[in-house]
Design a protein that fits this description.
CATH class: Alpha Beta
Largest sheet: 8 strands, parallel, barrel
Number of helices: 10
Radius of gyration: 18 Å
Strand content: 5-15%
Low-confidence stretches: none
Structural class: alpha/beta
Oligomer: single chain
Shape: globular
Bound molecules: fe (iii) ion, zinc ion
Number of domains: 1
CATH superfamily: Divalent-metal-dependent TIM barrel enzymes
Mean pLDDT: 97
CATH topology: TIM Barrel
Number of strands: 10
Length: 292
């Protein structure tokens, strides 16, 4: 089982991220190269990077399973303001070179939001932008499957396929998100059916990361509100079945479940619960107790 959560990337950069992942008993993790809401980024510190790599090796974290996530505010779908579109393209180019310096193989990207453009134009904009960004031998961008909140692109398999078909490089993949898929209308209780459809349209080998989240909302509500594992619409057994599905066995699983009371990271306890294979109805209370 390759499992971790999103972690911080602060003053200690990747070294701090690795230390946090170890606290959670994880063997991988996902990080943003700065705050997810903005594009202010610091230079990569070489000493900290060396320390991070040493710690990954000594603690059994394989860097090829570590995932970067691009900030939410880059939007490749909308080019009504050419300046903003170009900014997003340039930012992602820089993000890719940061990943290259760090030795990170994969970077997850929200495809973008159409905001006022017809969907076909928005999807074409995303592919056009990706064609300017992707390098065949660089880190791979993974398009995340979205809930379809507002005018989000990538809300179904067909939209993801259209984007991929218009990207000339094969150095591109997909990141599934179980909360988003539920909210988009794909029943995760029948995950094999979804994987079959995915395989027919896109090819299962394109999946390189899975965000493991429960959902606060019912199937097809297009809301995108994550819930702690086992406490939402999907439920523990459905999520465990997805994690243990042999077809995606070697794909890194990343938790992005909400902090308890906006303060306490739930990942150590959630990962323990997943590894135990048994739902713990007292999990939330135990997390609060742990941080007291
Ligand atoms: Fe995401
Ligand atoms: Fe996600
Ligand atoms: Zn989400």
């Amino acid at each position: 089982m390759i499992i971790g959560s999103h972690v911080k990337f602060n003053k200690e950069q990747l070294f701090g991220s690795v230390k946090e992942a170890i606290l959670y008993g994880a063997n991988t993790f996902m990080f943003y190269t700065g705050a997810p809401q903005n594009t202010i980024r610091k230079e990569i510190d070489n000493d900290l990077l060396l320390k991070a790599k040493e710690l990954m090796i000594s603690s059994g974290i394989d860097i090829k399973n570590v995932i970067c996530h691009a900030p939410y505010i880059v939007n490749l779908a909308n080019n009504i303001s050419d300046e903003k579109w170009q900014f997003s393209i340039n930012f992602l180019k820089q993000e890719l070179s940061r990943c290259e310096i760090l030795g990170i193989k994969y970077i997850v990207l929200h495809p973008g939001s159409a905001v006022g453009l017809p969907i076909d134009v928005a999807l074409k904009n995303i592919s056009d932008a990706l064609n300017l960004i992707i390098k065949d031998d660089g880190p791979m961008i993974l398009l995340e499957t979205m809930a379809g909140k507002g005018s989000e692109c990538g809300r179904n398999l067909e939209e993801i396929k259209i984007i991929l078909d218009n990207v000339s490089s094969s150095n591109i993949g997909v990141c599934l998100d179980t909360c988003h898929l539920n909210d988009a209308g794909y029943d995760m209780k029948d995950f094999n059916k979804y994987l079959d459809e995915f395989d027919k349209l896109i090819g299962i080998s394109k999946i390189h990361c899975i965000h493991i989240n429960d959902s606060k909302n019912e199937l097809g509500t297009h809301k995108d509100r994550h819930e702690n594992i086992g406490f939402g619409t999907l439920g523990f057994d459905t999520i465990l079945d997805i994690i243990n599905n042999p077809k995606i066995k070697d794909v890194p699983k990343i938790l992005e479940t909400p902090y308890i009371d906006r303060e306490y990271a739930p990942y150590k306890q959630e990962i323990e619960m997943i590894k135990s294979g048994k739902f713990n109805p007292n999990l939330i209370e135990e997390i609060k107790e742990y941080y007291k």
